[in-house]
Amino acid sequence: MTEDTLRRLKILAESAKYDVSCSSSGTVRRGKKGDGVGNTVGGVGICHSFADDGRCISLLKVMLTNVCMYDCAYCINRRSNDIPRATLSVSELVDITMEFYRRNYIEGLFLSSGVVRNPDYTMERLVRVAQDLRTVHRFNGYIHLKSIPGASQELVNLAGRYADRMSVNIEIPNETSLKYLAPEKDFKSVYEPMGYIRRGVLENVEDRKRMRHVPRFVPAGQSTQMIVGASPEHDRDILRLSSALYATPTMRRVYYSGYVPVNTYDPRLPALKQPPLVRENRLYQADWLMRFYHFTADEIAGDSHPDLELEIDPKLSWALRHPEAFPVDVNRADYEMILRIPGVGVKSATMIVNARRFRRLTSDHLRKIGVVMKRAKYFITCGELEASCVADVSPEYVRNQLTAQPRKALKGDNPLQMTLDFGE
Prior knowledge:
Elements: H1 3-16, E1 60-63, H2 90-102, E2 108-112, H3 119-136, E3 142-146, H4 153-162, E4 165-167, H5 175-181, H6 187-210, E5 222-228, H7 235-246, E6 251-258, H8 277-292, H9 297-300, H10 314-321, E7 328-329, H11 335-338, H12 346-355, H13 363-369, H14 373-376, E8 380-381, H15 395-403
Parallel strand pairs: 1-2, 2-3, 3-4, 4-5, 5-6, 7-8
Helix pairs in contact: 2-3, 3-4, 4-6, 7-8
């Protein structure tokens, strides 16, 4: 690799770091014996490195170019910004990917791009990278391609033949705010490619029922990203949109990115000193509750409480707002209700339901199962526990008890790195 190529690669990797929708989702693409280069790691994903703020920056995460015809207020690569610009040719990026892959630096590619000339021109170049990797170099690693908003159905369908996952970023969760911050974009240009991907996946499923050797189309589904804090939407609005997206059959993940104040000179943007990482973390927790704990968006953040509490996680917040639902008898309650107990996770709830078939569970049994009794004791009954349920005392008392002693900072802790504590 030449010095000039390395310089451009560094610029484009730096420009790509604000896109967080790069999880591999553990998809499997196996090469035939003696045919092609590499395999993805089945079932475990291929995420290896993390940014200082905790975001996953796995794969070779790079842009084809950071030159862009759009002037979106929230984007570091906006047309009016005076930043170093760079472009890699299709062949250069293919060669870099293969070189890094053979050296075991990476297990795949996450590729996006600024929009040059028009969406179709840019999308065609992205597709050529994936096509050359798959057909010329027999590359069997993971490929995540960004679909350019406004790209044609033909190019999106072609990209789906070579990519493991595709994504179209919504960016701003409200169209009015999107038009205000990015006048050249609209929801139609975002949702149309999403629809192309969804239809392609569903048609491919039907085709494979008839002919099992038909190549898979975007086997890891699609994802999207929303920027949090650049516009005035409530968490309620963000979660409702996420819930609607998850209701579609091919949407695997919605990512939330706290707005990084990169363009502080633009008066349309909020005056933030740092990204709203706590809010971002709470949205991920709420997203987890919708996906695995059977909560609805309105239960987590409804009209009466449109924003998530920053002090406590959304599951505990729901429990404190509904003391009438507790205590829950862990020896009698159904699985759905056990999932709603703070301190009980999906694995613990499953173990409780299975274990109580053989004996009556006590608090000691719950501890061994993995229930966080410090939280759960205010919301459950199992015979020998004292009557200190949230319904017997008060939600305020329980809140104070659970937030009174913050964890002492450890040496080396990064104050910007958030942990996903789901109360398990």
